Amino acid sequence: MSQKILVVDDSGYSRMLVKNVLKKAGHEVIGEAKDGAEALDKIESLKPEIITLDNILPDMTGIDILRVMKENDLKAKVIMISAVGQLSAIEDATELGVFQYIIKPFDEEDLLEALKQLENG
Amino acid sequence: MNSKESEYRELFLMEARENLEELERQFIKLEGNQKNKSAVKEIFRIMHTIKGNAMGLGLDAVADLSHVMEDVMSAIKDGKVELDDKLFQLLFRGNDKLTSLINAIQTGEKVSFLGIKTSLSLHLKKALESAEEEAPTKEEESQSEDKDQAQDHEEEVDDKSSTISFSDVIQIPVKKMDELMNEVGQLIIERDRLLAMSITKPLLHSDLEALKRITSDLQYSIMNSRMVQVGFLFNKFHRVLRDAAAIEGKKVQLELKGTEIEIDRNVLKVMSDSLVHLVRNAVSHGIEEDTDRVKAGKDAVGKITLSATYERDRVIITVADDGAGISAKKIRKSIVDKGLVTASMSEAMKDEEVIQYIFEAGFSNAKTVNELSGRGVGMDVVKRAVESVGGQVRIDTEEGKGTKVSLHVPVSLALKSTMLFEVNSVQYLMALSYTESIVTLSKSAIHKLGGGLTTEYRDEPIMVVFLKDILDLPHLRAISERGVLQRNYELTEEDKELEMLVVHYAGKTTGVIVDKVIQQMEIIEKPLAKPYNQIKLLSGTTILGNGSVSPVIDVAVVTDLVHKNALYWQLEEDK
Amino acid sequence: MFAKLNDNELEIASKLVFDGLSMAKKSMEQILQSPISIEKVDYSDTVKSVLPRYLQAEAQTVHVIKTQLIGELKGISFLVFSDQEVKKVYEACLPGTIINSSSPESKMMKMGFLTEVDNMMAAAVITEFSNFLGVEMYGNVPSLHVMKGEEVNDFLEKESGDFTSVIHFKAIFHGKELDISPDFIWVFQEEFVNKIKAIVG
Q1: Can you name the residues that pair with B402 across neighbouring β-strands?
Q2: Mind listing the pLDDT tens digit of every residue in chain A (121 residues)?
Q3: What is the DSSP code string of B131-200?
């Protein structure tokens, strides 16, 4: 089933990679954001069902975004895709309800697998 | 949306668009030179204005974003945060978003601003934190403390000069002016109709009905155009509170209620200084140090609430704090020490009466008068200001819980609600704002007490006076002669039914007995011309419908006379 | 370098650096889809003339990608490619339409690719350090600086200038198939040494 997805990453290259995988899997990418401000605005206005989220953005961290989402009751399933791989970061993200944490560089299969798990609940 | 609200929105939009244009110019200046202090100040000021106005109208999105931008600009202005390229870009984006939000007020389009708001506040938070990290080490701290104090003094000077500015110009929405124009047009048509009619036949009372309606509409519309929302004034208090809290080193938050309440611009203007005073008082004397608050089981952050509500033809503006309250015990001691009352008198007084002394000129309960205010210093000024517009001040305080000062002021200066009554076949008026009720009682319910009279009102003893006794006095000083305030009591038959106005002023309730209560009346009060302005008992006069001039009795003076007289006799008896 | 560490501590520190660089190597292999080896690791306490190969190459264009560390441990990393190396990396990883286009979008994409390579490599090292030393640290968003060869050493020195006392190591990565040998330079505040001591002690 196609889901509405927002892709958040400061690197255009990374966004392209993620988008290609998502499109291949038949999902609809409804928007992209290159920093936290843009991401939050689009989360609020586009109401994506899934968000792929980089953890380090020019103006804030992915964790910041998750917190603001929580405070403002903005709900979406989040797959964190980040080069930040330390346990503490993964724990923080998990505590804030991140569905899956994928460490960059990642294989296509990792993301597809995460999306499949997401769909299966 | 009601028409009033949309009117204000139009006014807000008009102002906001001008502000946005100015912001655009200032941002361009700032882009050219990021050290441009005047641009920083100007952007700060405009953000502050937009925020204030938007809050008053409940435009939350605009208020939220401009609030964050104001905070950032304030930090830059005060040198707490450096304006670098990154921050400039964020501010620039914020400004764009603000423009979209303001435009969206009209289009109803939904604009999301959560992102930029978060970016800005996170940037500010981080910048302030890293500035703190670089804060001086311990050895340097004692030095910097001295410096802080020096700065405080500078601020003090600053502070006194920066009272709330209140423009002499009021902005009237075009729609309101159109209404006025329309009503004046109708008035002219009616005038011409009546003129034409009067040529052929004498005018009847019923012919004037339309004229009556049009003129009263016109009067209402003009009064209406002088009305402003108290929110416009209240919103200026975020700054007042922040400054006061900074000087006192206390944590206080401000809550505004009833910002949509409308009041005559002049009344509001007269109140503005008093409110500044009350808010500063609340910060410096009401709110405790945060450690004391926590000990007392309160939230570390103090709260001050500014609110407005309607009550009949009055607006009640209150300044309430959740601080320490005022100790009646301390004040009782203080007024005895100052020789304002004797020890035995002070013991006889109820706590509420004792508290009223803070409104006495020159009274101060503060141990040391600090730069902001000593509670009490200036409370007499507040009282005078409120009374000058025919209002009154009430204070409620509970030790450990907080203090609430209420200013009961008329909605409009133009019209005053009064009660018309008769004494010695002359018609007098008294402001309704002080009148609690009108009761009928028989003479047997009244008893002599000292040099005066008393009765029970709602199970409490109150002082009573026959207004005739006071009006018959050759001069007010004669009141100290024994029995003058009991003369008409003695002359009255035992079973006679009497009409009594119960007035409440400055915490004192007094029963004023008149010959006959006639009716409630809206009047335009005129000040007394010389030399009659020397007559203390009267606050002014008005012209009644039948052309006769009626004096307006000053409740404050009557209450004062009666209660001072009572105290005098009590003192005599003590001797 | 690391003079303040005893043998035991030195061993731990070297192993940590090596593990970090190995993770970075793996990341690089995965992105470039080509085998990479670590040719050499140098330690020193200065960044002066740290890259001698650019001292003579005045006219050459060099791409330096910088990542600033944020968190408990202050530091900075640089990934340095020559112009030819950058072209080779593009050839290997990006579609021809992007490589040959000079549209703003394509330029952004190319820049984004380079910074992303650095981002992942730096993050790999940081992840190792953070987990091992138990400190909160992250790499900020990387920035790309393009300059003349003669400017490189000065640039590195100037950018590291904020660190009064530095611990510094440098690795040369080698991609045989791609024929590239980028430099990967790390500068840490001396606090890094204290953390190592604390862990071992």
Answers
A1: B398
A2: 678 999 999 988 899 889 999 988 888 999 999 999 999 999 999 999 999 999 999 889 999 999 999 999 999 999 999 998 888 889 999 999 999 999 988 888 999 999 988 888 6
A3: HHHTS--HHHHHHHHHHHHHHHHHHHHHHHH-PPP--S-----HHHHHHHHHHHHHHHHHHHHHHHHHHH
The band of B573, judged by pLDDT with boundaries at 50, 70 and 90, is low
At the top level of CATH, the class of C2-200 is alpha beta
Helix C7-32 vs helix C191-200: crossing angle, to nearest 10? 110
State whether CATH 3.40.50.1370 applies to domain A4-107.
Answer: no
> Is the distance from CB of C5 to CB of C196 less than 8 angstroms?
yes
Domain ranges of chain C: 2-200
The rounded mean pLDDT for chain B is 81
In 3-state terms, what secondary structure has residue C82? Answer: strand
- C119 contacts chain A (CB < 8 A): yes
* C89 close to C32: Cβ distance less than 8 angstroms: yes
CB-CB: which of C31, C109, C138 is closest to A56?
C138
- Best mutation target among B114, B116, B121, B126 (most A Cβ atoms within 10 Å) is B114
- From B293's Cα to the closest Cα of chain A, the distance in A is 28
A vs C, Cβ pairs < 8 A, gives 61
Q: Is B508 on the interface with A (CB under 8 A)?
A: no
Nearest beta carbon to residue A40 from set B90, B93, B114: B114
The residues facing B315 across adjacent strands are B310, B409
Collapsing DSSP to helix, strand or coil, A37 comes out as: helix
B 220-259 residues with CB < 8 A to A = none
| Residue indicated by tokens 């190591």 | C169
Cβ within 8 Å of residue B467, ≥6 positions away: B423, B428, B512, B513, B514, B553, B558
Q: Are strands B538-543 and B416-423 parallel, antiparallel or unpaired?
A: unpaired
Contact A13 C124 (CB under 8 A): no
Buried b (16+ CB within 10 A) or exposed e, B46-85: bbbbbbbbbbbbebebbbbbbbbbbbbbbbbbeeebebee
Q: In sequence order, which residues have a C-beta less than 8 Å from that of residue A53 and are 6 or more positions away?
A: A8, A39, A62, A65, A66, A78, A79, A80, A81, A82, A98
> In C, which residues are within 8 Å of A16 by CB distance?
109
Nearest to B122 among A41, A45, A64 (CB): A64
Nearest Cα residue to C16 out of C161, C127, C95: C127
Residues in chain C: 201
Count H helices and E strands in chain C, helices first: 6, 7
- Closest CA relative to residue A83, chosen from C24, B122, C76, C181: C24
Q: What is the ipTM of this complex?
A: 0.83
pLDDT at B1 over 60: no
What is the spatial order of strands in the sheet that B402-410 belongs to? B252-257, B302-311, B314-321, B402-410, B392-398
Cα–Cα separations (whole angstroms), residue C62 to C24, C156, C159: 21, 12, 16
Task: Tell me how far apart the alpha carbons of residues B50 and B204 are, in angstroms, rounded to a whole number.
Answer: 55
Strand pairing of A100-103 and B416-423?
unpaired
Residue in chain C nearest A107 by alpha carbon: C30
- Flag whether pLDDT at B166 surpasses 70: no
Q: A12 contacts in C (CB within 8 Å)?
A: 105, 108-109, 112
Which residues on chain A are in Cβ contact (under 8 Å) with B110? 45
Q: Which of A10, A87, A88 sits opposite C141 (nearest CB)?
A: A10
pTM of the complete model: 0.51
Which two tokens mark B223?
């009064």
In A, minimum Cα distance to B117 occurs at: A37
Q: What is the pLDDT of residue B165?
A: 58
Of residues C10, C13, C155, the one with CA closest to residue C76: C155
Q: Hey, are the CB atoms on A45 and B115 less than 8 Å from each other? A: no
